[in-house]
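Please check these two lines:
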Amino acid sequence: MTTDLSRYDDWLAWLAERGRDDPDVRVVWVGGSVATGGYDEWSDLDVDLLCTPGAADAVHDRLVARAREDFDVDHVWELPRSTWPDGRQCFVNLQARPGALAEPTRIIDLHVSDLGDHHRFVDVRRHGTPIVVHDPDGLVELRHDDETALAAAIVEAVDQVRQRRATAE
């Protein structure tokens, strides 16, 4: 069964065009509920865009400006710059009040990051299989995360909770 993304066809075509036209845009894919399941008429379109290292801020700003020119954008919610150390995230809202659920949602969750292995490697067990819109160099790699590193991160997180408990009380 394929996911019906027709209400976002204009955006998918637009994103592919940005990938072709902007040399700093290296990879574009759609993830989120489209990739993991559960996508429905209330779902946003989760877009990951990987850029030439150091260009994420500029690419983000160009994309948002261009989206405002090419679409009837009601508003953009931009997360604080400190949210991502190597990128930016915003929600491009094509409706005045999408949260009211009065009609099928049209929100683009746009996450723009510098190209790096930690972004281009996608563990399909956790993130599903992305729909790759633009990747001329084959940079997106579907693979499982390193089990040893995951186990070590869990042990460290539990130890931090244990250490913090008395301070947090």
